[in-house]
Design a protein that fits this description.
By secondary structure, the protein is of the alpha/beta class. It is about 40% helix and about 25% strand. The strands form 3 sheets. It has a 6-stranded mixed β-sheet with strand order 10-9-8-13-11-12, sandwiched between helices.
Amino acid sequence: MKTAVVTDSTAYIPKEIRDKWNIHMIPLNVIFGNEAYQEEVDITAAQFYQQVKDNELPTTSQPPIGQFVELFEQLSKDYDAVISIHLSSGISGTFAGAVTASSMAGDFKVYPFDSEVSCMPQGLYAIEAAKMAQDGVEAEKIMLRLEELKKTARAYFMVDDLSHLQRGGRLSSAQAIIGSLLQVKPLLHFENKVIVPFEKIRTRKKAMKRIVDLLGEDAASGEPYQAVIIHANRESEAQEWKSELESLYPNVEFSISYFGPVIGTHLGEGAMGLGWMKK
């Protein structure tokens, strides 16, 4: 059985890795004024953060259902099924779009998967699915494996400025106002598919230390984990953090990724995150 793997651009999987594992990508959009850009296609993360400095904060939009239908139709010529892995349905209609498109795919089997997160933790699911697909594992078994991984998946992040999340409707006004007044760096995470505060911490340094401790609780088992550091235009800080974490947790394989245009619109520059799951 030949299975294709699709994800959306918010997984921020580098093109060379998508090409290596034959992962197909549906882009979301950032809109500056009247100009729409498909992220990872028309605009890079670096270009986005530069453009935000000179413009008002953009808006974002999910892919049109027609884009899913077109891709699924194209894949149906060469594959028996497709697994379509997307950012949390609690913060975007992208997963719902994949579900709707799957009902229009006729006999072609589409398996939509709600990662319940975003960014490279979502990408880790797509890479695992693609590796299994290349080994000829059938789609149902791949979906079971993704559900298993979900039980061990964690992701925490902190933002420098709560106003982006509040303006984008991802955090309540009251939480944003309180956080700003107290200079709080709230630790955020996904719970029941939406972004909620995990803990309120007063400084950036303490917030990042708390994330490290949370990873440590899981890594203490000694089992092999994979983890990804995610940054919003803070590459050197991410590199330093990676070195520190590698010395603390030898059983964890670390990589570095980024908050791209769509997620960066809601988190703002300077955000840092860490996601992990068992290998």
